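Project outcomes to date are best conveyed with an example. Our students and postdoctoral researchers have been running inverse folding experiments weekly, and each run begins with a structure described purely in tokens. The record below, which covers 147 residues, was selected by the lab manager from last quarter's runs and is presented without edits.
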């Protein structure tokens, strides 16, 4: 994560310089209540009012955190990734193709999460997996369906 030039990655609100700190805050939050502030910050930076190059860079880290059983807001992280897949463009040039590719690239981890012992995480992973499997848009090249 530290190897990425976060301050140079645009968001709809400026740069992504704060993204690593928010990801670390999520990783270390002992309760979901404490993680909610970091989730709100990440949503504002990466999704609202649309996606940006920073969103594409953050997606693998969001899914990796969702796969870590010590993280308290795993379902919410998967929901945030799903929102990234559905969100509109927030910057120019349009970053959605890169965001879609990043989300589609998490399919193997999402597959593992469908068997998570927490029902809410498993359900969110199944929902995200379905969205990945059925994703089709004018920006993305056709992909084989299914797992």
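After processing, the design step wrote out the following sequence:
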């Amino acid at each position: 994560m530290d190897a990425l030039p976060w301050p140079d990655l645009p968001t709809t609100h400026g740069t992504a310089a704060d993204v690593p700190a928010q990801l670390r805050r999520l990783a270390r939050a002992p309760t979901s209540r404490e993680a909610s502030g970091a989730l709100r910050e990440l949503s504002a930076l990466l999704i609202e009012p649309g996606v940006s190059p920073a969103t594409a860079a953050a997606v693998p880290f969001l899914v990796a955190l969702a796969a870590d059983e010590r993280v308290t807001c795993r379902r919410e992280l998967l929901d945030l990734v799903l929102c990234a897949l559905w969100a509109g463009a927030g910057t120019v040039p349009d970053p959605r193709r890169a965001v879609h590719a990043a989300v589609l690239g998490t399919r193997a981890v999402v597959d593992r999460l469908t068997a998570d012992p927490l029902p809410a995480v498993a359900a969110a992973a199944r929902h995200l997996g379905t969205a990945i499997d059925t994703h089709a848009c004018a920006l993305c090249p056709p992909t084989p369906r299914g797992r």
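Residues 6-134 form one domain. The longest helix spans residues 119-134. The training component of this project remains on track.
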